[in-house]
Design a protein that fits this description.
The structure is a homodimer. By secondary structure, chain A is α/β, with parallel strands linked by helices. In chain A, the strands form three sheets. In chain A, strands 3, 4, 5, 6, 7, 15 and 16 form a seven-stranded mixed β-sheet that branches. In chain A, helix 3 packs across helix 4. Strand 14 of chain A pairs antiparallel with strand 14 of chain B, so a sheet runs across the interface.
Chain lengths: ~350, ~350
């Protein structure tokens, strides 16, 4: 049988958890005009929270969807062979068909030469959406120069860690991270090699945060990679030097609120300081439209400039728990839900008949 | 005698006016190593308000300074001849020496071939700082595409009017202006040729403003040129379409407040809408470092794509009144203080001896 993660009901306010999702079993479908694929890794990402609202893209009683990686089980297309590995954006259905129309519409990437079947988590991480987000935000939006100081919020998360490692190891920047709690801060400085990490749980106000930044970097910051929002943003703007750039990637602090609180900004300060605040998504880099995302990232992983950090949850039934971990600080690095045959997924011969 | 505008005392809060300035008379100085010049036009600009604060660049008992245009009276330099016209940034002293060091440090531009002596007001307007601000903000920061809709606040002012005319007549954009009162709005649509103009005095809240924008442009705006701040900014962000750009040039609404009120921004909205907010100053364009400011503007004036609007105040003694007009809506287009010999300035032969 194939297993599907359904959203029980939309959720405007509050913490998402296992109670909001349901697993349903359906027969494995016939192939159709394209591919039959088996998912090996399913992603839980902060942006999905907004899509769960009544105004969002997920609908009650319908499957969740997002970034996945997996293996081709059957193919009617010459460019895809049985056993090929891929990354893509699909419904969270453990075994499913992918039509030719779907292949054209969504960013389906071949991972066969880049990772082994056991490393398929990378397809939703460093070589997937979070990787393209870190890469595009840093290279395309912030445009680092050697000697710049960057602050990365959410530094223990999937995107933030990679931003800091690339900034430091590839561009020669001084890198400040922020994360919640001493364990995550240790990970950020010890494993990821950031120069400093601020425990935001020790900051109860924007002023505290500004003091903490000024303590490790008295001259302030040249770049800020925004994953959090709220007082993080306001502290960053206060510490931003002339010619400073802010890449807005996410604002997880407000994702569970009914009506998000706006951030405060003194736009006058932007003028003489020649500062820029810019929102972006990973898409241009993920689909290969700008720069060389897959090539550069695979190279930097191989060279050891980029350490991969993953938090695993096993079995498609754990989706709600994996998703909730994002909002309660339960993950470091990329959250990977392993759903391949060894974790109860896949198409058993009996089920296929 | 030469006349100097002195700042009596710094002013942190409140409306500037004639009572804050004093005119002192001093003998015309000897030439020194560079030039002796006579000012013909002196500029009153909104940015000068911030410089009057105790934290600003102007000091109590010292001369005011800013953008000027004028004529060379004597020269020790082969590249400048008697009678040459220029634009520059100098103290507000009707006849003064300009040393070789000063010529190197400040953006001194030759206007001899571009304007007549009677048109020297252009040297502090379309061919000066406001022109470079309009040109650079539109071309370098907002980067218009044909068919885009732009909203320009302060549309009856020196910079705003030019931004809208270039956007419409050179780039083929739909142009919405905002200004205070029906007379200014008429100027903006009738003389400057904007498609629409919103009287901001009819809007008592951000919501009113948003309604007014939506009424003339139901789909919102692609670009916003910010001269005002406060609810103007918040309304613009609310109407900004995907791929929208905001150029922050000024925020005059808060310039007279002790502690400016921050603007509110929902940074989450920037992300999926791929929006950018960027501050800038005119300098790179004014000094000729980016694009071709003087050449393009002179051409567009000649082709009639750019109508020049000026509000004149006469005699250096009127500086305080001219400056105050910026904050009480007393000007349309560029405020030009005429200070040449026919307005009581200049170096009389008797005074020179």
């Amino acid at each position: 049988m194939s297993k599907t993660v359904l959203l029980k009901a939309t959720l405007d306010v509050g913490m998402p958890g296992p109670e909001h999702f349901e697993i349903v079993h359906t027969p494995v479908p016939a192939i159709g005009d394209g591919l039959l694929v088996e998912l090996h890794a399913i992603s839980a990402d902060p942006y999905m929270r907004g899509q769960m609202r009544s105004t969002g893209g997920y609908k009650a009683g319908k499957p969740m969807a997002g970034f996945v990686s997996g293996k081709v089980l059957e193919s009617k297309l010459p460019e895809w062979k049985v056993g090929d590995l891929f990354g893509g954006n699909l419904p969270y259905v453990s075994v499913q068909t992918v039509s030719v129309a779907q292949l054209k519409a969504s960013p389906f990437r071949r991972l066969t030469e880049l990772v082994s079947e056991k490393e398929l988590g990378l397809g939703i991480g460093a070589l997937g959406m979070p990787g393209a987000t870190a890469y595009g935000g840093l290279i395309g939006i912030l445009r680092p120069k050697a000697g710049d100081t960057i602050w990365v919020s959410g530094a223990a998360g999937a995107v933030g860690g990679m931003v800091g490692m690339i900034a430091k190891n590839v561009y020669g920047c001084t890198v400040i991270g922020s994360a919640g709690g001493p364990e995550k801060c240790s990970l950020v400085t010890q494993k990821f090699g950031f120069d400093h990490c601020i425990d935001y749980k020790t900051c109860s106000s924007t002023k505290d945060f500004i003091k903490a930044i000024r303590k490790v970097s008295p001259k302030g910051i040249d770049m800020y990679f925004e994953n959090v929002g709220g007082m993080h943003f306001e502290a960053a703007m206060s510490c931003l030097r002339p010619n400073g750039r802010v890449a807005v990637c996410g604002a997880i602090a407000g994702y569970n609120d009914a009506k998000p609180t706006p951030e405060k900004i003194h736009i006058t300060n932007l003028i003489y300081n020649l500062q820029r605040v810019e929102g972006f998504t990973c898409e241009p880099w993920l689909v290969g439209g700008r720069d060389d995302f897959l090539g550069d990232m695979a190279k930097w992983i191989k060279e050891g400039k980029l350490q991969v950090e993953e938090t695993f949850f096993d079995g498609i039934e754990s989706f709600g728990t994996a998703f909730q971990s994002l909002f309660v600080g339960g993950n470091t690095g990329k959250v990977v839900l392993r759903v391949g045959p060894e974790y109860g997924g896949g198409a058993t011969p009996a089920a296929k008949l």
